[in-house]
């Protein structure tokens, strides 16, 4: 039972990360391939501050998120106005740097041995893991709500415009670099918060937690569910993490001999799903979002009105 | 209102495309900029709005509150002090409806910050009203949907610039790709705004009858330099213009 | 002396990276997207070597060429099966990268499902350690370096001195125009993917024999390969080879003066820095 609650709590973290990635990539068009880096700064930052420097847990999470934000700000300043491929490579590199530093700085991070233990914040209560799950649920619901508000807000409209045609948006007086930077920094800081909140779930942190597979799992969930849809992230996590990590690992009658192969089979399926989705349904399961005023069916091309030669 | 460029040059691979000693726009209301293909008209427009970095030269804009150099400004800052340009090539936001696209252009960037996420209403009533009034004036196929044809996209591009209420509007070939009646409606609207003192306009065009009809003053650009300036009649009668452009 | 050591060690260690960077760059140039699944081309090269060298018992040097060719063929199959149809459907560059991540996962974990996750070792030929003017290296390292120089040189010659490079440039810049001027885009693309596959496979064989063969070996170098490619500028094969050499030497140098892991951090930071100040506006 405890394991199931742990799994569901972790699923909430994934949904939160995918939702933030939806804002970064789906709305603002920033391909962040370093999700695990910003999440990991929050996770390990919290662990280090809590264990090595004896911060109270909430203060540790807050401080760690600020670290994520600061790193995101520097990175945003350096590469956010470059091409998508450059942003992608730079964020991926950042995640690799974070993972490496956790191993090298073993005086404060515990190196490969890991660091711990980080307890739940309400340690005196009997059902603390259930209460913590409830707390995470509230956080993630809040995140989805804000994200939905964002899409229908003036800022969201500006981000979509920047994603579609940045130069045109700038020519209309929009400070596109600042809007992208602010969005990136805030969402990365929130990834850091989710990282900090993950620390009590894992209790004992090891460098393995910072493997790039987390980034890809979140990306796969987002692309699968629908990057442009507000609920795509959630559906995507259900279809990947929910299906494989919870349903199959908990309930499927896998013979002992093959149990070790299940994670590999899972990642193989993730890859296959990703290929199928991009080839046959690039907008994901839910498709593009349908904000108000948008017609249900895709606009059918109509013949051009007669035009004068230029 | 005065947009001034001095000693403005732009070279690509040692090939000089623009070389203007001195030119001033915005003094006369509705002005025209004409010249043969490859004269550097579009490059000049890009230079003035800071979308293209000049090789050398100074650009200054005086909106009545003192002259300001545009050289250190970025593209969005130029737009914010009131200088906006329509696009010759079709540009647009594919995911925004016609209405959203216009609302975006009409919104003050100051109101589009982080806190707008928590605002109750998305757009103020006056913005909604201005958007509706503008959309009603034109025969869009789907007023609540997306711009569909190339012509609609081109029109939307011009309308976006108009609703942003610039002090000086540069129009880069507004007739290209637009049906005649629409061009006429747009130009009447522009003339009205100019007459009302809301803005000044510079039109770049190949369609000379349109220039003669609407413009109060015309600049003639050839081989990257301003060769002649004057009232439409003077330009029409000028020998250099006739020789270099109208092929007479 | 430190510098000479660093250059020497760097060249030896970077030799597989140079090949990988060149191959990766070819595809990047031709099709305009970063193919993360190129990591698996490298990995599969090493596993093909295991097949020929360990399972079938060929001598290591005899196993090199067939492993290389098999990787090339695999590269073409993946191109024809997945990437070409996707490009024809008009999938954008960022989506192409995500697609290549999917392909990468399929290949990597499909491989693990078939051969298992254990680390494997190639049967090395007899290794002798040689010294020359204070610099030491094994004969294997020297042969690897020689082969890399040979392959890189051939590749370079093919691209800059035969029609292939011209055709590739034509295709990358203007697809329709290239077709109109008689270039067969289908054939040229297949040749490029085959060559890139061979380079990746060879890179994998050497990485494998220097250390061990693991399902993750390609992934471990793909990030550096990507950064090398971007920093070198779009599809400059010359630039990619040069950047890979510099990266190798830099790594060796930092490893000599500090902890080995810091070299990776320093290298990545250096790349982000170069990316910023060189203004690599690609795609």
Task: Fill in the keyword field for this structure.
heterotrimer; B: 248 residues; alpha/beta; 6-stranded mixed sheet; 9 helices; C: 283 residues; mainly alpha; ABC transporter involved in vitamin B12 uptake, BtuC; two-stranded antiparallel sheet; globular
Mean pLDDT of chain A: 87
Shape of chain C: globular
* Alpha-beta classification of chain A: mainly alpha
H/I helix tally of chain A: 13
Q: Which segments of chain A are poorly predicted (pLDDT under 50) over 5 or more consecutive residues?
A: 290-310
Regarding CATH, which class of chain C? Mainly Alpha
Tally of DSSP helical segments of chain C:
11
Describe the protein:
The complex is a heterotrimer of chains A (310), B (248) and C (283). Chain A is mainly α. Residues 290-310 of chain A have low confidence and may be disordered. The relative contact order of chain A is 0.17. Helix content of chain A is 70%, strand content 0%. Chain A is globular and about 55 Å long. Chain A has 13 helices and no strands. Chain B is an alpha/beta fold and 248 residues long. In chain B, helix 3 (98-106) packs across helix 4. In chain B, strand 9 and strand 10 form a beta hairpin. Chain B is globular. Chain C is mostly helical and 283 residues long. Chain C has a single domain, classed as ABC transporter involved in vitamin B12 uptake, BtuC (Orthogonal Bundle), CATH 1.10.3470. Chain C is built from 11 helices and 2 strands, in the order H-H-H-H-E-E-H-H-H-H-H-H-H. In chain C, helix 6 packs across helix 8 (185-210) and helix 9 packs across helix 10 (237-257). Chain C is globular, with a radius of gyration of 19 Å. Chains in contact: A-B, A-C. Chains A and B meet through helix 6, helix 7, helix 8 and helix 9 of A and helix 2, helix 3 and helix 5 of B.
Structure summary:
Helix content of chain A is 70%, strand content 0%.
Lay out the secondary structure.
The complex is a heterotrimer of chains A (310), B (248) and C (283).
Chain A: H1 2-27, H2 35-52, H3 57-79, H4 84-104, H5 106-109, H6 128-151, H7 154-164, H8 166-171, H9 176-202, H10 213-225, H11 232-251, H12 256-259, H13 262-280
Helix pairs in contact in A: 1-6, 1-9, 1-10, 1-11, 2-3, 2-4, 2-9, 3-9, 10-11, 10-13, 11-13
Chain B: E1 2-12, E2 15-25, E3 30-34, H1 41-48, E4 56-62, E5 67-69, H2 75-80, E6 83-85, H3 98-106, H4 125-136, H5 150-163, E7 168-172, H6 180-195, E8 200-204, H7 208-214, E9 217-222, E10 225-230, H8 232-237, H9 239-244
Parallel strand pairs in B: 3-8, 3-9, 6-7, 7-8
Antiparallel strand pairs in B: 1-2, 1-4, 4-5, 9-10
Chain C: H1 2-31, H2 38-55, H3 60-88, H4 93-115, E1 129-132, E2 135-138, H5 139-161, H6 163-173, H7 175-180, H8 185-210, H9 217-232, H10 237-257, H11 260-278
Antiparallel strand pairs in C: 1-2
């Amino acid at each position: 039972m405890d394991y199931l609650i742990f799994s569901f709590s972790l699923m909430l973290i994934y949904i939160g990360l995918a939702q933030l990635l939806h804002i970064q990539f789906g709305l603002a068009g920033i391909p962040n391939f370093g999700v695990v880096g910003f999440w990991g700064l929050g996770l390990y930052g919290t662990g280090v501050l809590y264990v090595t420097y004896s911060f109270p847990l909430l203060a540790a999470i807050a401080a760690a998120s600020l670290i994520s934000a600061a790193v995101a700000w520097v990175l945003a300043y350096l590469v956010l106005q470059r091409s998508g491929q450059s942003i992608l490579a730079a964020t991926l590199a950042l995640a690799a740097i974070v993972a490496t530093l956790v191993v090298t700085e073993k005086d404060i991070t515990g190196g490969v041995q890991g660091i711990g233990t980080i307890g739940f914040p309400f340690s005196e209560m009997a059902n603390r893991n259930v209460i913590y799950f409830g707390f995470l649920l509230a956080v993630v619901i809040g995140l989805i709500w804000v994200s939905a508000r964002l899409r229908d807000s003036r800022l969201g409209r500006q981000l979509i415009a920047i994603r579609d045609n940045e130069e045109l948006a700038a020519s209309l007086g929009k400070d596109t670099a600042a809007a992208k930077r602010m969005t990136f920094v805030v969402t990365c800081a929130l990834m850091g918060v989710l990282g900090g909140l993950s620390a009590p779930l894992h209790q004992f942190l090891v460098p393995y937690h910072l493997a790039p597979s987390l980034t890809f799992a979140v990306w796969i969930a987002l692309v699968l569910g629908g990057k442009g849809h507000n609920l795509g992230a959630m559906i995507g996590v259900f279809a990947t993490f929910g299906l494989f990590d919870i349903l199959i690992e908990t309930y499927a009658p896998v013979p002992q001999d093959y149990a070790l192969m299940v994670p590999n089979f899972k990642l193989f399926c993730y890859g296959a799903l990703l290929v199928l989705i991009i080839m046959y349904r690039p907008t994901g399961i839910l498709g593009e979002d349908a904000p108000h005023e948008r017609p249900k069916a895709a606009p059918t091309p109509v013949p051009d009105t007669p035009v004068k030669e230029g | 209102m005065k947009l001034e460029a001095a000693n403005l040059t732009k070279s690509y691979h040692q090939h000089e495309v623009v070389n203007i000693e001195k030119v001033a726009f915005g003094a006369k209301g509705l002005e025209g900029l004409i010249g043969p293909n490859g004269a550097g008209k579009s490059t000049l427009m890009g230079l003035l709005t800071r979308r293209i970095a000049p090789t050398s030269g100074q650009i200054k804009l005086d909106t009545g509150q003192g002259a300001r150099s545009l050289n250190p400004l970025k593209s969005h800052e130029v737009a914010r002090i009131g200088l906006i340009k329509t696009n010759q090539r079709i540009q647009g936001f594919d995911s925004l409806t016609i209405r959203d696209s216009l609302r975006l252009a009409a919104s003050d960037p100051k109101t589009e910050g982080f806190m707008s996420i928590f605002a109750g209403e998305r757009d103020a009533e006056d913005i909604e009203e201005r958007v509706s009034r503008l959309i009603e004036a034109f025969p869009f196929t789907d007023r609540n949907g997306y711009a569909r044809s190339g012509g609609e996209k081109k029109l939307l591009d011009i309308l976006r610039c108009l609703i942003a209420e610039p002090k000086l509007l540069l129009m880069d070939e507004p007739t290209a790709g637009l049906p005649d009646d629409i061009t006429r409606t747009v130009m009447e609207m522009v003339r009205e705004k100019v007459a009302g003192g809301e803005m000044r306009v510079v039109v770049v065009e190949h369609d000379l009858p349109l220039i003669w009809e609407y413009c109060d003053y015309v600049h003639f650009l050839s081989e990257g330099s301003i060769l002649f300036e004057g009232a439409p009649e003077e330009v029409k009668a000028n020998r250099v213009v006739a020789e270099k452009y109208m092929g007479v | 002396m430190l510098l000479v050591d660093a250059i020497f060690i760097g060249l030896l260690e970077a030799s597989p990276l140079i090949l990988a960077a060149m191959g990766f760059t070819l595809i990047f140039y031709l099709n305009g997207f970063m193919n993360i699944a190129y990591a698996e081309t490298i990995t599969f090269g090493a596993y093909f070597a295991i097949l020929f060298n360990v399972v079938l018992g060929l001598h290591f040097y005899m196993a090199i060429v067939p492993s290389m060719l098999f990787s090339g063929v695999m590269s073409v199959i993946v191109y024809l099966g997945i990437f070409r149809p996707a490009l024809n459907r008009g999938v954008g560059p960022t989506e192409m990268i995500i697609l290549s991540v999917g392909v990468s996962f399929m290949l990597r974990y499909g491989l693990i499902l078939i051969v298992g996750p254990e680390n494997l070792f190639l049967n090395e030929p007899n290794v002798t350690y040689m010294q020359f003017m204070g610099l030491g290296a094994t004969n294997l390292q020297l042969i690897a370096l020689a082969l890399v120089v040979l392959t890189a040189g051939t590749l370079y010659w093919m691209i800059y001195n035969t029609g292939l490079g011209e055709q590739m440039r034509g295709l990358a810049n203007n697809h329709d125009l290239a077709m109109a001027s008689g270039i067969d885009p289908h054939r040229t693309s297949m040749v490029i993917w085959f060559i890139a596959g061979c380079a990746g496979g060879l890179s994998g064989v050497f990485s494998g024999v220097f250390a061990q063969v693991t399902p993750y070996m390609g992934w471990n170098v793909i990030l550096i390969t990507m950064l090398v490619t971007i920093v070198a500028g779009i599809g400059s094969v010359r630039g990619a080879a040069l950047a890979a050499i510099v990266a190798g030497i830099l790594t060796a140098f930092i490893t000599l003066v500090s902890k080995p892991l810091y070299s990776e951090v320093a290298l990545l930071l250096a790349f982000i820095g170069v990316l910023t100040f060189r203004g690599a506006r690609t795609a």
